[in-house]
Records
---
Amino acid sequence: MTTAVVTPGVVTTAADSTTSLVQSVDWLAIAPPVVVAAVALIVLVADLFLPAERKQLLGWVTMAGLVAALALLVPLRDGDHSTFCLTAATTGTGAPGACSYTADHFALVIQALVLGGALLTALLSLGDIRRFPAGEFWFLLLSSASGAALLPAARDLATLVVALEVASLPAFALVGIKRGDRRSSEAALKFFLSSVVATAVMLLGVSFVYATTGTLHLTEIAARLDDVPGQLDTLAQAGVVLTLVGFAFKTAAAPFHFWVPDTYVGAPLPVAAYLSVVGKAVGFSGLILVTVIAFPAYADVWGPALAVLAALTMTTGNVAALRQNATRARSAVRLLAWSSVAQAGYLLVPIAAAAYSSDEHIGSTVAYALMYAVVNLGAFAVVALVARTNPGNRISDYRGLYATRPLTALAMAFFLLCLAGLPPGIVGLFAKVTVFSAAVDAGLGWLAVVMAVNVVIALYYYLQWTAALFRAPEETAADEAAPAPTRHRVPASLTAAIALTAVVGVVLSGAPQTVLRFAAVNLF
């Protein structure tokens, strides 16, 4: 007689002491990235049949797909769904083993971040989509978002690398989608070459780890690295270091950050906003998974390395941002790019601290990433609005913005103060305090001091930009004789993006502890 034995994510059949290797799939667990990927294919096919005047519908379909994917996270909020697990026959122990996909609380929070970031990017893009091939743009955005949503739930190195590349490869094309623009093509090429090198280094590290442990599942790697034979210890350490170097490229950690400024400047502004938030979330979630879950046995290797990288990254980013010339073309985007590098340094601090104390400090990184995503997308939305009347997008172009667009200027000031960690941007201050506390609790006093110095450095350029918003516009004799400038119509989607991020930022500033509570509960 044959009986079916059902375990989470696995179906096995016991008959005459034999076990089937057939697996069942928890479709609900994998629904968010699958829905995004399916909508990407629908958009690609629909683009072939829609006339040019109706291409705008593709943007609304894209947004509907991202909203549906976000809604599918609600039934998964218990954080207890796994699929693609090793069967009892595979493990040889009579019990199912490690899983390749786990929708735990950590995965759900990061998925909410990347899908929400992609949704806001789509909102930013609706007003400018006529400048790009619509079908290709929306397809590439959705494809990248599907990989970004898959990555935080990946629990083996193969799935992790595939998800990372699915998120990255469409991003190359998005950066260079402005056809005929030399700067865009150059940015895409630089981004592509640096990412390919990072992937090659990472794959070499992964191969070393596999050669040492004989498995790709993160939890099993952790167990086997606890007892590595002496002759394989050097190989294991090399694998850990090379894997971290690969992720350092993806997170824009110094000295692997060189691609960031030119890529952000050359890319369309919505794509630059997407890379600064979703691309960063992807890199950091992958880094957290490999360090905290797979490599805890080598915390003495990656802990000090990440602490040094954090100090170097935040210092490099802030010093470079400090040197930006307000009258240089595209200095506003370039400053946000260097600011993004500096913020990556702050995000590295709690991960480094996890090597010295408990994993609870990872919640500080997730909370900081959530705060950063909201305010940075808002800042890019304002930059996109100003760029409609000032294509040069210099910081000096923002002088007197309060006189012409007071609500926009107030929103931009709020975003910059959040990034600086000053009131009324309480959520930014709260996020920096949690990161600072993580360093202190882990005994990394020197890193806390470096962070404090960098926060002071950052105050200068954030406050300088904020002050420019409220200064009187520069006037010349020619300006006084000229007619008043024509106000350009701002797309409703762009206004909605600014308003939405500002409202969310204000709400979180009123209850900043909500962010940490949401990010820190039952991460693993």
---
Amino acid sequence: MKVSFYVVVGGFALLTGCQTLDNHEVTKPEAKTVATENTVPQYYLASPAESAQITDVWERIRQGMQLPIPDQKLVNQYRDWYIKNPKHLEIISERAAPYMYMIVEELEKRHLPIEIALLPIIESAFDPSASSASAASGLWQFTTPMANHFGLEMNWWYDGRRDVPASTVAALDMLEYLYEKTNNNWLYAFAAYNSGESRVLNAIKRNEEKGLETDFWSLNLPKETERYVPQLLALAEVIKHADEYGISLAPIVNSPTIEVVDIDSQIDLAMAAGLANMTPLELQKLNPGYNRWATSPLGPHTLVLPIDKSEEFKKALAETESEARISWLRYTIKPGDSIGVIAKNHHTTIAAIRAANGMKNNTIVAGRHLIIPVSADDKQLYAISTSQKLPKKTRALATGPQLTYKVQSGDTLWEIAHQHKVSVKQLTAWNHLSKDSKLHAGQQLTIIAPQTQVAAEQIRTVSYKVKSGDSIARIASKFNVTIAELLEWNSLTPSQYIQPGQVLKLVVDESKLSA
């Protein structure tokens, strides 16, 4: 399967692709043709007792590593690049914090190589919302066919490729499948994850017919696949000896930090955020699989929550009737209306409207009424809907102030682009460079800041659940808004009291929130 992944800039090309799963049978290589250096015992991981004594997940990963690191040119080149660019892994290690414990737990439960936990670094730089030009998406960069094949749901409301727990299960299912299909050889399996098992098995077969060696390093594979596996091995080597190489990885506590909570019905995400005492943006960051303002009517009915918020959320949810978890609008059908137009105008689907009204077809009659599910957040109701977000390719086109950046020693195009939230393609176009151009200290680069995106991501509507001891003044101060604004947003008067459990709406600039 061919997937998009990040590689180094300066010396290596940025490689992208799409996943392919081959269903036709290809003759497997005989066991004797598999080099022992490429084969790792299936059951080798540390015991739970040993893992429990480790406080940092990175150390847990180091102790579990077993894949041999060969002295190969590309492995050494990638290792040297990581060492020379320590910021790359420092940033990614912070981004991995919410998910790495969960991934490692799943790997150990299945007795799979712990090094697989590093694949999302290559695939998506641990960004669950990452997408590629070849339409691969999510932490593990699934394409639509592969997502469907391994059980990930995708619809108007939800994209399982961006659901980290769900896509992790699917990715490990796929890797187990590929491991078995490639004669229990993990290097073959990783190569197949990138380009499909048919290419790998056919390459092995060609070498066998020619009397050549059939270990991974002897195979004639697509260039990106030939680089993909060495990059993973180099990454494992660097992570294992991070201290020696001067690389600082953000510590990840060796205990659960997130929980998948079953909510049993559709829910408005702004309301869910309020019940969990979170902002909608905080909730959305942990649940990037949801495309709209609510979870899907048909499921999955789950939310990923911080472990320290889950119990409070579950108690509040239990006190909220299923019918109250979504707001409903009574709409009078107008002449010329169609159910499709009504659904589009209210940011919902035809299926959702039909289900809410018990309709057997799309026929509607002017003058009659429809019940339409809508967000409870009024004017800001669609703030986290996909249709209201600038897609990643479009975001970079949003123009803002022009900046001049002075290149520092060790800088790469990828790092500079990532730091300023633009693409390498834009950065090279603005400065008349190629993606392989070498930078030198003191060189000045022009960057057009994506101002529109920044502005859109700062202003959010927050649902806040009143706690015992809260007051209007205290809540206003906490969210850096005025008392008058808070009263207006919630149709309150200065003399009205607020009660514990009451949910208030606030429109806040998150960049100005007090810690």
---
Amino acid sequence: MTRAWRITTVTDAARARIAVARLAAACGVPTVERTRLATAVGGQLRQCLTKGGTWLLTLETTGGDAGPGELHVVVVPAPDGAAEERTPWTTGVPCPDPGRASGPCPVPDEPAALSEGLLGADEDTSVVLDELAEQEGLVAFHREELHQTNQGVLALHAELDAAGRAQREAFAAERRARNEAENARRRLTFLADASAELTASLNHDEILRRLPELLVPRYADGVDVWLFDHEDGRPLPADHPGAAVQAARTGRPQYAADHPGNLPGVEDRPPSALAPDRPLLCVPLLTPRRAPLGVLTLSPQGERWDPDDAVMLIELARRAGIALDNARRFEHNRDIAETLQRALLTELPSTPGVGLAARYLPATRGLNIGGDWYDAFQQRDGSLVTVIGDVTGHGLHAAVMMSQLRTALRAYAVDGDSPGRLLTRLHGYLRQLQPDLFATAVIARFHPDDQTLTWAAAGHPPPVLRLPDGEVRTLDAKPGAMLGIPLSQDIADHTERLTPGSTLALYTDGLVERRSQGIDPGIERLGAALASFDRAELDTDLEEAADRVLHPLLSDSERDDDVCLLLCHLRG
């Protein structure tokens, strides 16, 4: 259905506006949409009145009785009007019930009707304002809700940020802790390995050589070891850094640099005049009794020392001092034992018809001095008694026991006993004197009249006999057990006829025994060395022969036990 109004005056415009509002209400258009439509139409009509002329407003509803449609409003200049504008203005709203507006929608000309229409428009406006106020309340509620949500989101972001920072800090702390643990493990491993290397040696010079090798360049750029030379432990005047002198005087570590070291247990001092641009850590080398042996001076790889590295180096210096003290004590005891050993060795007698040559060599490794010994002396009947033995144990105690056995043997030999009887009496003597000490020995007696060799052994390597024709025999007849073991024994004598030119070799196990091979290959090598001589060489120079026997047997090994060799040559 289509309706039209001519608009020329304000009254015409008011009537048309009222008609549009009423028709929209009749069609079931909601109040808000209806008010929006009436306001839009009123605004357009005001523009039309401002332009002047006659305008035509057309209302048209579409759709049927069965469903919704649409309400269209078109404003154009009247065909016979004076307005030049010809472009139509149009708007529309959905129309829920267009069938209800099938009839005419007149608007009376009376002022009362117009006022009533305007008041109706005000009622619609009031409804819109109420809805607007309600919407504003909802908007305010949602705005507050949005604000709270934003605050919550901000708080959540803050918590997440804090949690992220805490997590990053925890990861960083874990990495630091892991690095510190790894560094601590590395330092402890180095300290244990370095200590084992230093304490494994009892050689003073070797320890001093190993110290720089261990520390440079891993923990230090340079290492200097200053050892005191005199017995009271006071340092000799020398050109050393002042911090090293102070460390020697006080027994406390010193740090010399142009900046504080802040190292645990270390005193800070000015930089050294000898090395003003290089920090120096000076650590005293002390014995377990806190007596100073010297000073270890180290320079760092960088500008500063790591405090944990400094603590580890100070502990290593303490252990190095103990190792040096042990080495000095060991060398002192070894020198005493060697001196005593050599003082107790016999000067060989000159015996008609028998040549003698003896060699004693101390061990080159360890305190293996004092157990091996040899002796040669004559009995009343003119027989020559030769003996070689080995006391278990090493050092001063073994040397003292060796001297006691040597003295006891000479005393027993005055009675003219045979070698087996002498060993039997020595066995009883050692059991009585030192129940926990043992010894091995071989005694050989040469009789000048009948050229008979009588010999007996107690737990000792067998004698080796070289015959004049170069044949070598091992005298391995059943020997007795070691001297001093907790059992009674009678050690038997054995005899051997000799011819001029025969040579008997008595020796200790240090000459022939090797840990990787045992003793038998060594005895075979000794026999081969004896067999290599001409008879004339043995007759003329037995001393040279003794040296030539030792060389091939000892040149291929580190001598970790002392060695005795006694050659007895029966001249023609």
---
Amino acid sequence: MIRTGISMLALASLLAAAPLGARDRDGETAQAAPTAADAKAFVADAEAKLFAQGVVASRAEWVYETYITPDTETLTAREGAALTKLQVDLALGAAKFANVAGLDYDTSRKLGMLRNKIVLPAPVRAGAADELAALSAKITGMYGAGKGMLNGKPINGSDIEAAMGEERDPARLKEMWVSWNDNVGAPMRPDYAKLVGIANEGAKGLGYADVGAMWRSGYDMDPDAFAAMTDKIWNDLKPLYVALHTYVRHKLNQKYGDAVQAGKGPIRADLLGNMWAQEWGNIYDIVAPPGSGSVGYDVGELLKAKGYDSHKMVKAGEGFYSSLGFKELPASFWERSQFVKPADREVVCHASAWDIDNVDDLRIKMCIKVNADDFVTIHHELGHNYYQRAYNKQSALYLDGANDGFHEAIGDFIALSITPDYLVQIGLLDKSQVPSADKDIGLLLRQAMDKVAFLPFGLLVDKWRWGVFSGQIPTNGYQAGWDKLRLQYQGIVPPVARDETRFDPGAKFHIPATTPYTRYFLARVLQFQFYKAACDQAGWKGPLHRCSFYGNKEVGAKLDRMLQMGASKPWPDALQEFTGTREISGKAMAEYFAPLKKWLDQQNKGQPQGW
């Protein structure tokens, strides 16, 4: 997840006055029609204010997420209210220049950004921005301080996530799943409904049908065309997911029996090794095929054997980017980042990357555990930081990724290069332990348990929100709408019956934090496009999933050219710069997993397909 200074701007209000014309015959001042020069001046003034106010607001949010107290909640809510007021003023001001003739490219693009980059728009009525910010801060804090139960004892967010991956007793899994969703999600439901109402009112004031329509308008294409593009990508990759689902369901049925997991139909959500069943890699031991299933090593165990702690894990991640030619992270990164959960206070453990000053005050915020998942996450979060630094010479409104999926995909495609050969190169794995080709199905299955399993979840989170914002999912149907989409796309069901006193969406960080989620779906697809492009540039000739471009400075230089573009050009331009194509496609992902798909189809013969 990315957090930037510009995205947290606050403490200012737009003070741009419309140009004055000559007085009319009644002595009143007449407003002259805005010109292209007025529009350019408006944008320049807006960017200056945005950039200047970024540092204060970013620091306030950083302190809140790393030190959750009523005082820090109040401070970040105040900053959030000022941000929302500023953003709404800017959006309304930008709309006045929408039909001005003769706008240059940058002015036109930036006016569009000012209008549709608001995540939570507030109405212009008095007090609305303050109320919206207070609600947002409150429910984010509820998530950060939330606890589930294990063996009848409270357990915090980062610990319960780890325990869900390690536990195999279905009764304990059910206890954790139910308690987390009930304790964290349900209490925020009334406040979330209020937040939706206020934000929708704000979106309509900016000329959008609802907040979801506003979010979809930010992708350099028609909002409906964007939704259709995501559906097409999903439909192209759905057969791969269904094959994986069928295989995993059969293995869970073999382990737990019909009373826990039936051999047909949907999968019980809490059995998949993750609180949200969004990634299934933690239960690889249950589904690993005989022989090829054991790849001969576990990254987490390798890290522990070599004495890695959180700091050394981050250093290893930095080393990958350095090998591509990127300069090392600044000293302040090591001094100011949060690597582990403090023992003395509540924090938001959800991993995120920050650029406090939009120059070089880069940080990550994690509660790192020495395991394989966090090793990958570190490579992912650092991808945000290197992207942020690459485009830091751009003007304020271009300090962002080509689209939000790009920002998430950079670190993910780097992490795809955490192959056995890479682990040998950095001294974690002995060359004699590199698995032979007959282990490839195991390697691919382990990857698919995270990468492929995530696809439907990555799509449905925002489909649920789009439905909530549009009213297709009514306030009294939040839970039913969530469960319906989970069944439709993921083929999973809760371990216990849910009703409308519950609010399971709120038990996923990105819902209370109002972080758009389609970016993660796009990132899962884009990362394979980036990865294949990098491997092609490196001259890789073997199976795609074995490729590592660690140490290839030519790949790094080409990547840097794309990163430096920031948001200055439409995303197809940035995609073409690195991959040579202008279309987001699932073809590279399908190629990567083609050997696994063939194997899964063989294993699934005679098994009921789908749910």
